[in-house]
Amino acid sequence: MFEVPASLIDLRSLPPPILTSKPGSFAYNTFKVRIPRIVEETIAANSFPTEIEASLWALRAEITGGRIRGLQEATPDRAFWDAVSSPYIGRSWLDVPWYWAEAFFYRRVLEATRYFQPGPWQGRDPYHAIKQTEWEPGAAPQAVNAMLQGLPSEPRARFQMLLYASLWGNRTDLSYNVAAQIGQMNSLVDERVNLLVDDSARVWQFLQERPHRRWILITDNAGTELLMDLALADFLLEEGEVAQIILHLKPQPFFVSDAMSQDVEMGVRALTEGSAQAQALGQRVQRHLASGRLQLHTHWFYATSLFYFQLPIDLHSDLAASDLVLLKGDVNYRRLLGDAQWPLTTPFEQAVAYFPTSCVALRTFKAELAVGLRPGEAERLYAQDPEWMVNGRRGVVQAKLPGVLPMADAP
Fold this sequence. Notes:
Elements: H1 26-45, H2 50-65, H3 78-85, H4 98-112, H5 128-132, H6 140-149, H7 155-168, H8 178-182, E1 195-198, H9 200-209, E2 212-218, H10 224-238, E3 242-249, H11 261-272, H12 276-291, E4 294-298, H13 313-320, E5 324-328, H14 329-336, H15 348-351, E6 359-364, H16 377-384, E7 395-400
Parallel strand pairs: 1-7, 2-3, 2-5, 3-4, 5-6
Antiparallel strand pairs: 6-7
Helix pairs in contact: 1-2, 1-4, 6-10, 7-10, 10-12, 11-12
């Protein structure tokens, strides 16, 4: 537990990592603007005692003008974080690899809020109050009910629309809520114009080729996105397409709205207090959980700075034993690609060839990296929308599937 695993690839073969040091980049802006604001919002959303507030303000000051220090608390993961952080201690937060910096920041928030220490704040999610806004009847439950009402009855078309709903639900990310900037989700059919790669037909073909014993869905955000994930899982279980689905969740608070097991429980409760279709979905999800066909799983890897080519042996074996792994959201996409500066036309299956089983990435763009685009496409997009890589408007459904070739007419 908490070891630094051997890499599944030669790290020297990766493109350069995305750093926080490039002025004007999204990574730079994250630590110049967004992360300090997250500290302020976390303080405002809680009634922390004076000493916890002081620790958070000190963390903010360190980010905006100080030098990175290591963890100071005695915890089981201390040696792990000391090992992966040693190259960066003493440097500016604006001079380090971007994903490591974000992961370590969220771990430092838990240290500042005494999440692991005995006392009244032990085990308390510092983002709980922020997440609660998504469980109001007019928020996530209303969004999933509206989506369910518009679904076609034909199974293939229904699956495709649910896959899209799971994808676009990722816009509602409380650490960077792009849905608030670009408006609520349009009709799922209309949103196809924003899909830069759409392998959904390949995924359906793969699903029909043979019995599927188990899928793993690696979640991202609680709230709207998690309810869309549950709707997709419900369809697959109800239709008998997949015998069992395992939701992989964060073991502790990580990025602000990342889903943990208790968020699934709150989401089901929110569904059962919603409108008729939302209630029916909530009841079916409860039945799936009770039968064991839908299960919840956590692993320490998911709240670390490691990439998917650095999987611990037990998690690698678990993923490899599944028929398919669905990876949700921008951060999981970044972890698939090592948060590196890949040429945008690199084939997705080439970049993730190391992954131990078939996989599908559902991702809205909130970071300056991507693979699998057609030649000239990035230039066209920059001319239309200079912020296309980070504003959450575009998305991809990208698959690595054995024996299922990319469609010739894919967008």
